[in-house]
């Protein structure tokens, strides 16, 4: 048998899982990362360079770990879930992968529990759900999740139901859960308790990328900027801003941000109201993610508006004329308070300007790709 044929001959090791001959006295295991376009692909590319060494150090140093990746638009089944078994049948044989890990930005639940990973041993495949990793240290958490799945799929580690795996930090809300007999997965890392749901919520907001709201809502941004500029050069606003305390200005700005976020959500029908009782319970998390995404996006718009307004005020308003209108020597704080009030007024006008945007444009600016898919699927099924 030549070297190429020997490389293709599977050895039966590790609980009947297929591996290939590698280094002398060891074996070779090919691990494939199948990633959705966008953030999952970027994450897979970041993990790829040193993942072989990480697996050797943390799983088995006698094994030669060969890691590859592929970007593919991952389809969903009728339930809106990633069909791991059919994906494994399609890609593992074609790519000659022994183990396949799907990386996606689709939030996943098993029953009522949100999860970060799922495992299907019979298909030698697993899935990492990016929202389940939260908003911070995503690369490190993703590496741990991949290592955990590879350990389980190659027979190097077994866990009891409800146990925290050794490679998961002590304070992590992740717990190993064996799936029910009628489930389509064998096990998963579930996000338990309030901290688990908060981590999932943070991951969903991060996937929505709130900072995209400003460039996508051009009409709202233009209306906010025009109104803010008008307020800056209007002397009555100078007197009003000078008379307001910082606490009252802070309250005005908070009310303005909440008002614009509320307007965007209600006017564009972003609030999820499914008719089914079980679906309504799940919709609480999606609605919370929508509210936080919108508030953070409007806050980003507010900060940019404030910085632009401050530069305009310093350039346009002569200190002597400013002093004559205020009847006192001008200070830098007076400029700050003026722009503060002008930005709040501008944000309120921006809410009205957003009415010129189409509902589809607002949805595209607010949600990530997978959340848009979920909403379109829900709307199609309700018709």
The tally of beta strands, per DSSP, is 10
State the helicity in percent bands.
55-70%
Mean pLDDT value? 84
Q: What is the percentage of strand-forming residues?
A: 5-15%
Mass-distribution shape: elongated
CATH fold label of the largest domain: Collagenase (Catalytic Domain)
Examine the secondary-structure arrangement and name the CATH architecture of the largest domain.
3-Layer(aba) Sandwich
Number of helices: 14
Main β-sheet, in a few words?
8 strands, mixed
Strand and helix layout:
Elements: H1 3-8, E1 11-13, E2 17-19, E3 27-35, H2 39-58, E4 63-71, H3 84-95, E5 99-104, E6 108-110, E7 113-120, E8 125-129, H4 138-153, E9 174-178, E10 187-191, H5 193-208, H6 213-216, H7 218-232, H8 235-243, H9 246-267, H10 277-316, H11 319-326, H12 332-353, H13 359-366, H14 369-382
Parallel strand pairs: 3-4, 3-5, 5-8
Antiparallel strand pairs: 1-2, 6-7, 7-8, 7-10, 9-10
Helix pairs in contact: 2-4, 5-10, 7-10, 7-12, 8-12, 9-10, 9-12, 10-12
Describe this structure in words.
By secondary structure, the chain is of the alpha/beta class. It is about 55% helix and about 15% strand. The protein has 14 helices and ten strands. The chain has helices spanning about 5-10, 40-60, 85-95, 140-155, 195-210, 215, 220-230, 235-245, 245-265, 275-315, 320-325, 330-355, 360-365, 370-380; strands at about 10-15, 15-20, 25-35, 65-70, 100-105, 110, 115-120, 125-130, 175-180, 185-190. The strands form two sheets. Strands 3, 4, 5, 6, 7, 8, 9 and 10 form an eight-stranded mixed β-sheet that branches. Strand 9 (about 175-180) and strand 10 (about 185-190) form a beta hairpin. Helix 10 crosses helix 12 (about 330-355). The protein is elongated and about 85 Å long. The N and C termini lie far apart (about 60 Å). The model is unreliable at about 1-20 (pLDDT under 50).
